[in-house]
UniProtKB/TrEMBL annotation:
Database matches in SUPFAM superfamilies: PLP-dependent transferases
InterPro entries, per the entry: AcOrn/SuccOrn_fam, Aminotrans_3, Aminotrans_3_PPA_site, Class-III_PLP-dep_AT, PyrdxlP-dep_Trfase, PyrdxlP-dep_Trfase_major, PyrdxlP-dep_Trfase_small
Source organism (scientific name): Allofranklinella schreckenbergeri
Family as reported in the entry's similarity comment: Belongs to the class-III pyridoxal-phosphate-dependent aminotransferase family. ArgD subfamily.
Cofactor(s) of this protein: pyridoxal 5'-phosphate
Chain sites annotated for binding pyridoxal 5'-phosphate: F135, D222, E223, V224, Q225, T280
Reaction(s) this enzyme catalyzes, per UniProt: N(2)-acetyl-L-ornithine + 2-oxoglutarate = N-acetyl-L-glutamate 5-semialdehyde + L-glutamate
Keyword Iron among record annotations: no
Molecular function terms, GO-annotated: diaminobutyrate-2-oxoglutarate transaminase activity; identical protein binding; N2-acetyl-L-ornithine:2-oxoglutarate 5-aminotransferase activity; pyridoxal phosphate binding
Enzyme nomenclature, EC number: 2.6.1.11
Domain of life: Bacteria
Protein name: Acetylornithine aminotransferase
Classification lineage: Bacteria, Pseudomonadati, Pseudomonadota, Betaproteobacteria, Burkholderiales
One Gene Ontology biological process: L-arginine biosynthetic process
Length: 402
């Protein structure tokens, strides 16, 4: 292919700042661009390619499904939905699932559940508590729930009904709702992803759970990025003993086939009645086969244990190596969801790392984000650090702190 593959397209809307690379194929934790250059994939399509690339079992299952039935609409029963729902219920201890196609759609469904609960209670303006630095998606409701002014800019008026509080501050939350009569839910990421890899503390999760029980609110968690095994548990909140009432999933659920889900416990499972919510593509046979096979492979290959073990190893190696550099702040995260905070904006590292054969991202301006496939080995994690270290070292030397 010619170099045109990486030129800005005259026909695709200009919504992304893209690295000048076009990827052509992948194998395991490696990808190759249209020029044949190899990269170690530390991003997995933003926590999507859980199983790495070209996993033979997933490929075979998808090929089989494509030849049988890709889509049929929700006018009919889709047996795969029952199979995936049963599995998600078993893994989460929750009770019912709605299938959609993306993270924002899962969050939109969660927010509609909260609205509907409020309307059912006779509230004129139901309110949902959300967090500073949260990211929930780009639809009007989910961008309004998002705690980032850059994502709000240009889209006023926002959807109303959100009360914003700092994460990990239960007193701040209680203070913010002190004069509110129509609160219906608290909604937050168990580990903030786009916000810079900031985990909600276990104690905070328990305090929010207790408050939601006491006030009869829904505890709703956005596990679109941190769910599906990424942290070494199926769902990040399972590092504690609490269960949410509503959980949004997407990214890792279908290994790259678009699929989202909102999983609800008994307090939220029956809020939607026929006609309240729907989607044309959601839960189609291809998406369900992808999710079912992804979960089966994760179980058979012990990928949760691998994510925990290799993630801890990777974090340790990052601390040992980058930790010595002037400009390093800290390593945060859980399992294969890792942020390395520097003391200065470092978005330039994305292109520099790519030149050195490594795909990474940067969030919240100064946090290097690593989201490797859950199949990564310790040797591959070491290779990742070996590729990252010289790039960060050189960057920090050449770009002094402001
Ligand atoms: C990516 C992400 C979303 C949005 O998902 P899309 O599939 O891009 O709509 C929502 N919440 C979190 C936590 C995410 O990481």
């Amino acid at each position: 292919m010619s170099q045109d593959a990486t030129a800005t397209s005259p026909h695709v809307m200009n919504t992304y700042g893209r690295v000048p690379i076009a990827l052509a194929r992948g194998q395991g934790v490696r990808v190759w661009d249209t020029q044949g250059r190899e990269y170690l994939d530390g991003l997995s399509g933003i926590a999507v390619n859980t199983l790495g690339h070209n996993h033979p079992r997933l490929v075979a299952a998808l090929q089989d499904q494509v030849a049988k039935l890709i889509h049929c609409s929700n006018y009919y029963h889709v047996p795969g939905q029952e199979a995936v729902a049963r599995k998600l219920v078993e893994l989460s201890g929750l009770s019912n699932v709605f299938f959609c196609n993306s993270g924002l759609e899962a969050n939109e469904a969660a927010l509609k559940l909260a609205r509907k609960l409020g309307n059912d209670r006779g509230y004129a303006k139901p309110k949902v508590v959300v967090c500073e630095h949260a990211f929930h998606g780009r639809s009007l409701a989910t961008l309004s729930a998002t705690g980032n002014p850059k994502i709000h800019a240009g889209f006023f008026p926002l959807i109303e009904g959100f009360i914003r509080v700092p994460l990990n501050d239960i007193e701040g939350l209680k203070h913010a709702v002190a004069d509110e009569e129509e609160v219906v839910a608290v909604f937050f990421e168990v580990i903030q992803g786009e916000g810079g890899i900031h985990p909600a503390r276990a104690q905070y999760l328990r305090q929010v759970r207790a408050l939601c029980d006491e006030r009869d609110w829904l505890m709703m968690v956005d596990e679109v990025q941190c769910g599906m095994g990424r942290t070494g548990k199926w769902f990040a909140h399972q590092w504690t003993d609490i269960r949410p009432d509503v959980m949004a999933l997407a990214k890792g659920l279908g290994s790259g086939v678009p699929v989202g889900a909102v999983v609800a416990g008994p307090k939220a499972a029956h809020i939607f009645q026929p006609g309240n919510h729907g989607t044309t593509f959601g839960g189609n046979p291809l998406a369900m086969r992808a999710a079912l096979e992804t979960i089966a492979i994760m179980e058979d290959e012990n990928l949760l244990a691998n994510a925990e073990k290799v993630g801890a190893h990777l974090q340790e190696r990052l601390r040992q190596t980058l930790g010595k550099l002037e400009g390093f702040v800290e390593v945060r995260g859980q399992g294969m969801m890792i942020g390395v905070e520097l003391d200065r904006p470092c978005g330039a590292l994305i292109a520099l790392a790519a030149e050195a054969g490594l795909l990474i991202s940067v969030t919240a301006e100064n946090v290097i984000r690593l989201l490797p496939a859950l199949i990564m080995t310790e040797a591959e994690a070491d290779e990742l650090v070996d590729r990252l270290l010289p790039v960060v070292t050189q960057f920090l030397q050449q770009k002094p702190a402001a």
